[in-house]
Write a structure and sequence with these properties.
The complex is a heterodimer of chains A (481) and B (315).
Chain A lengths: L1 H13 L6 H13 L5 H12 L6 H11 L49 H14 L2 H16 L10 H11 L1 H12 L8 H34 L1 H8 L14 H29 L6 H8 L20 E7 L5 H13 L6 E7 L3 E3 L1 H5 L4 H11 L11 H12 L7 E6 L11 H10 L2 E6 L13 H4 L5 E4 L3 H11 L1
Parallel strand pairs in A: 1-2, 1-4, 4-5, 5-6
Antiparallel strand pairs in A: 2-3
Helix pairs in contact in A: 1-4, 2-3, 4-10, 5-6, 5-8, 6-7, 6-9, 7-9, 8-9, 9-10, 11-13, 11-19, 16-17
Chain B lengths: L5 H9 L12 H9 L7 H13 L3 E4 L6 H12 L2 E6 L6 H4 L1 E3 L1 H12 L5 H11 L5 E3 L1 H7 L4 E6 L6 H13 L1 E4 L3 E4 L5 E6 L7 H6 L1 E4 L5 H11 L5 H16 L8 H13 L7 H11 L3 H12 L7
Parallel strand pairs in B: 1-8, 1-9, 2-5, 5-8
Antiparallel strand pairs in B: 3-4, 6-7
Helix pairs in contact in B: 2-3, 11-12, 11-13, 13-14, 14-15
Classes of the chains: A alpha/beta (481), B alpha/beta (315).
């Protein structure tokens, strides 16, 4: 058990979950205090002792399922299979399909195909209808054997197999059949009931997908061993995802991570501001306190400080390459706009447009960001980024409004398509403003390569910051207020 | 592997004459006894509570507001017949509010009362010992929990509200179950208290604090559990209505809302529907009472559009 735990901790650390030495010890102790045959209890115990952040829970869960998949400590499973005592199995030497839960399952198409596709589909349908978990597992196993076409030894994470299985299962038909039963007959226009029923069906289908995924994963563990698989399914934490290259699923993850993050940031900023300086002496309070020391004011009391909140001007490049990053930063800045006295937003490609109004009319920044693309007038010529022209426009129209309380944030990769840089305008902005910061979503090693001219602007900015992940973005915004 | 019982070890360290017996026999026991006090936990709540007792470690309970974090500590206190000692955290909480304070008014009186007599140096030293005696010590919740002879459950509520620096106050008590008072020495716990800390996650807690605690995330309950909670907490509700309520709330939580409905809000809604005498939720009822569940106008609008709007499929 201790060996397995050691490997497991190593995997958690590799996946970015910080597990300290003493937490490792706690986990080991926990395993002696509980009945480790109870997988649910084991999982909860390991989570409680080692994972101290709810954002890390999904990663822990995946890793746990991989590491403790076929190491069933369950005495009633057919047990010639190795239990956890002997380190991690290097299953490349083992013929596939030996360990497992009862039934021997081959990797590929070889396993007993006992059902026709129709029977399988019927079985899954029944399992979904009755919420029957055992049947669901059986059905999932059968579906994987039949459709996934798994090949031993291939270093994949299983997404491909999942896709193949699901494609062949015809989930749409299953969904339709389920809805046929669950939805009230002669569908009356009571929308709430219908909506709930649809949600219910969707949830059950998700359950099936999860069961299939688990099945595939267990077989992959048998095939390649836990460590190898854990490595191929390892995903970065949401705050470490590269914003510029996030795919759609990762983008959704990022958006989910953004809200709690901005809330925490707002609390921290508000607190920091309150504690930064002390205000004037609060005479009334001090005199009252002095009574208990015989009228001698030993303990001075101060009025709470009321420092001015900073103003923020965001100038964002929203051309294709950096659009998602700009979107994100705008979301974050507006989500904590209560911490600033004023937030003005400008977007550009080769023309520049102010979009502050879009944010003012809604209390949902997301909606405003979605409208930017449709409504902002940012294309003046050919729709390629032109920083020089955008800064020129900004400077002519808005520079007089920049004052010593304004922090200017410029977002972009400074890929100027070989246009003129007009860097002297930034120098003038800096002279007027409190500070000018440039957030660049490209890795620092790419700066000044190709048409990137960040080097020409950099001398006139207070700081140029590489800002590829939420973590970096948060750290920067935290220093602003 | 020589398994040392953590409770035994802690009892030795605290110098207790006997190891206090464990409170729960198994996670199932936890579930059952909490249920007797109308707290319906899920498996992970039961597991972590059980483990906290066995390992003699504090539990840090995190999760959205209104999901029963504080109620858990109360229920555990009830179920184990222990006294609940509560420390409500807030910004600006300090040592003199959380741990102990010297009752200096009384100390001043003591000094003045002694002044009439001769003021030799021996007397002064006697007096000095005297004014830092336990008589002049004001107990605050943490010290109270440590010094209690009867079984106690210590609840440190909303620990994320104190400043990062103040967290350090808690560390000694959380890991060693003791409080050091410079003038008096170290006070060790007289028994092994159960400790719960709750946090709404408004800020990141320090590593040091997290390391000393077991971590429990209490999220929104599963459909079945929420239904059971409604049934047990709202008198006179039918199971069918409770189920429907739980389903609506689950669908609402899937929408992208500013503030998802909490369990306590769900209960309020259920009570309202019972008072209105409804047996099932129609569109009109839902539209009229949605403001009990949702606290932002934009959320209410969105929910109406998504849930009650016509011809919109989810997918």
């Amino acid at each position: 058990m201790l060996n397995v735990l050691g490997d497991f901790v190593a995997e958690l650390r590799a996946a970015g979950i910080p597990v300290s030495m003493s937490e490792h010890v706690d986990a080991a102790r926990a395993t002696t205090a509980i009945d480790i045959a109870d997988r649910g209890l084991l999982k909860a115990s390991l989570a409680a002792t080692m994972v101290k952040d709810s954002d890390h829970a999904p990663i822990f869960s995946t890793a746990f399922d991989i590491f403790f998949a076929n190491r069933s400590f369950n005495p009633d499973s057919e047990s010639d299979s190795p239990d956890g005592e002997e380190g991690s199995p290097s299953s490349s030497e083992r013929p596939t399909g030996i360990p497992g839960r009862g039934k021997a399952k081959g990797m590929g198409m070889g396993g007993g195909l006992s059902m026709s596709p129709e029977e399988l589909s019927e079985m899954l349908f029944q399992a979904l209808r009755d919420n029957d978990n055992n049947k669901m597992r059986e059905g999932a196993a059968e579906a994987v054997t039949r459709y996934a076409g798994m090949e031993p030894g291939r270093p994949v994470g299983g997404t491909y197999y999942l896709y193949r299985t699901l494609r062949n299962l015809d989930l749409e038909e299953l969904t339709a059949r389920l809805q046929g039963i669950i939805l009230p007959p002669n569908a009356d226009p009571d929308n709430l009931t219908q909506h709930i029923a649809r949600d219910d069906v969707a949830r059950r289908i998700e359950g099936l997908k999860a069961a299939i995924e688990r099945e595939i994963r267990e077989r992959l563990v048998e095939d390649r061993g836990a460590e190898a698989l854990a490595k191929s399914v390892r995903k970065p934490l949401p705050e470490d995802l590269d914003v510029m290259h996030a795919n759609r699923e990762e983008m959704a993850q990022l958006e989910r991570a953004l809200r709690p993050l901005s809330r925490k940031l707002a609390v921290r900023l508000a607190r920091k501001r309150r504690h930064k300086r002390r205000g004037a002496v609060d005479l009334r309070h001090t005199v009252r306190r002095s009574l208990s020391t015989g009228g001698i004011p030993i303990d001075l009391r101060f009025k709470p400080p009321r420092p001015a909140k900073p103003e923020i001007v965001v100038i964002a490049d929203i051309s294709g390459s950096v659009a998602s990053f700009a979107r994100f930063t705008l979301l974050l800045v507006h989500a904590i706009s209560s911490q600033f006295s004023k937030v003005r937003s400008f977007v550009f490609v080769d023309g520049l447009d102010e979009v502050t109004a879009l944010f003012e009319h809604t209390d949902d920044p997301k909606e405003a960001v979605a409208r930017i693309n449709a409504e902002a007038d940012v294309i003046a010529f050919d729709g390629h980024s032109d920083y020089g022209r955008a800064f020129m426009t900004f400077h002519t129209k808005f520079a007089p409004e920049i004052n010593k309380r304004t922090a200017v944030l410029i977002l972009g990769d400074a890929r100027n398509n070989y246009h003129q840089s007009n860097a002297e305008l930034i120098a003038d902005l800096r002279y007027r403003a409190k500070a000018v910061y440039w957030l660049n979503p490209e890795p620092e090693s790419y700066w000044n390569s190709g048409d990137s001219i960040i080097g020409q602007y950099a001398p006139f900015c207070d700081r140029v910051i590489e800002c590829r992940t939420l973590r970096q973005l948060e750290a920067f915004v935290g220093t602003l207020a | 592997m020589g398994a040392i019982d953590p409770r035994q070890e802690l009892a030795d360290r605290l110098g207790l004459t006997e190891v206090p017996p464990a409170r729960f026999a198994s996670p199932a026991d936890v579930t059952e006894r909490l249920r007797a006090f109308d707290y319906l936990g899920d498996d992970s709540i039961a597991s972590v509570t059980f483990l906290a007792d066995r390992l003699a470690k504090p539990v840090l309970v995190e999760g959205p507001a209104g999901t029963g974090k504080t109620a858990l500590a109360k229920a555990v206190a009830d179920a184990t017949g222990a006294r609940l000692i509560r420390l409500q955290c807030y910004e600006g909480l300090d040592e003199s509010k959380a741990l102990y304070e010297w009752n200096y008014r009384k100390q001043l009186l003591r000094i003045q009362a002694g002044r009439g007599d001769s003021t030799g140096s021996e007397e002064w030293s006697a007096l000095e010992d005297d004014i830092f005696a336990e008589e002049f010590l004001l107990e605050r919740p943490l010290l109270e929990a440590i010094r209690a002879k009867d079984p106690v459950v210590l609840l440190i509520d909303e620990v994320d509200r104190v400043e990062l620096e103040t967290e350090a106050l808690l560390l000694e008590i959380l890991s060693e179950y003791q409080v050091s008072i410079p003038e008096l020495g170290t006070m060790r716990a007289q028994q092994i208290p159960m400790v719960f800390l709750t946090s709404n996650n408004t800020r990141e807690l320090s590593e040091a604090l997290k390391r000393r605690c077991l971590y429990l995330f209490v999220g929104y309950p599963e459909l079945e559990r929420e239904r059971d909670i409604i049934v047990s907490r709202v008198p006179g509700i039918s199971t069918a209505l409770a189920e429907q309520i739980a389903q609506v709330v689950r669908s609402l939580r899937q929408l992208d809302l500013k503030k998802a409905p909490s369990v306590s809000e769900t209960l309020d809604w259920a009570r309202t529907l019972v008072v209105l005498g409804r047996q099932e939720i129609g569109d009109a009822d839902a539209a009229e009472t949605l403001h009990i569940l949702l606290k932002y106008q934009s959320d209410i609008d969105k929910a109406k559009k998504e849930l009650l709007g016509r011809g919109k499929s989810l997918a």
